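Field guide to reading this record: the first block holds the primary sequence, the second block holds the structure written as discrete tokens, and the final block holds curator observations. Each block starts with its own label. This record concerns Mediator of RNA polymerase II transcription subunit 21, catalogued under organism Paraglomus brasilianum.

BLOCK 1 — SEQUENCE
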Amino acid sequence: MNSVLMQHTSQSLRPETLKEATSNMDRLTQLQDALDQMARLFSISVNYLSQPHVQDPAEFKKVQHELVTDICRKAKQVEILIDNLPGATRTEEEQLEFIGQLEKELQEANENYRKAAQTA
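BLOCK 2 — STRUCTURE
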């Protein structure tokens, strides 16, 4: 590996940076999964509740309550995941500044990669 690329890689891809990036992606994946599950719960609930039922009204009421409980529980999980996303406590200006820093790092990494590819 080219020394310029190795130097940049060692600076910007430190273990703590990689761990943070992986952790952030894990949080986003968890949020996406939770939202997918919540959408499925809504779909299942609407489908179930819109069908005619011949079961005991008390049993139907019990199932309705279970559906509501499941949706509320999932909504709370989504809320917790959103509250724990990185940058949730940053102002819009701080977030834009952080995005700018990431874009600059990406441009530098791309340039270093191009240089390394040309010399290889």
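BLOCK 3 — OBSERVATIONS
The mean pLDDT is 81.
The longest helix spans residues 15-50.
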